What does this fold into?
Amino acid sequence: MKNANPPLLENLIERLARLPGLGRKSATRLALHFLRQPEDDVRELAGALTEVKEKIKFCSLCHNFTDEDPCPRCTDTRRDRSIICVVETPGDLMALDASGIFNGLYHVLGGALTPLSGIGPDDLKIAELLNRIDQSGTGEDNPPCREILLATGSSPEGETTATYLAERLKERGIIVTRLARGIPIGVDLEYVDGATLRQSLEFRREL
Ligand SMILES: [Zn+2]
It folds into this structure.
């Protein structure tokens, strides 16, 4: 049976359905929601979408999204400039930063090494990271980089990336650390998978 929805509405539903996490059903619900919204609200949402696309760029130092280059995190003098935390994506950076525990600088790789999909070191911001380290230590506001904290994911790709980076960084005589893994807070041991348990044991510390 031919779809009898107005083509304009159908077009919106199709576009929304392509968004991550949205199927056709939720896309339809969203489209109908927009139709019921006051026109100004929808216009503002559309404006926010275009504006974010036009004005948000990558920071030339940390490669995170920003509207000014270098970004406010990179220029924040209250941050510890001698430690750089390396993450895969801007989303990872935001999650870590929202925790408020880490107060150093960041570096976004833009993914992880994935040989099967042909993603090699040149496809990530690895040369840029090494360059940042080499350029550090020029003065009081740019102290030497002392430590690199590898916070790539625990997936095989994240681990491969961390191993690769650790080797490249050790050549430079720099302290390389990796985010510890372990048992999530509030979870009983019986529900923890074997790999996590093994790592928790491996990275146990003295009390
Ligand atoms: Zn930055």
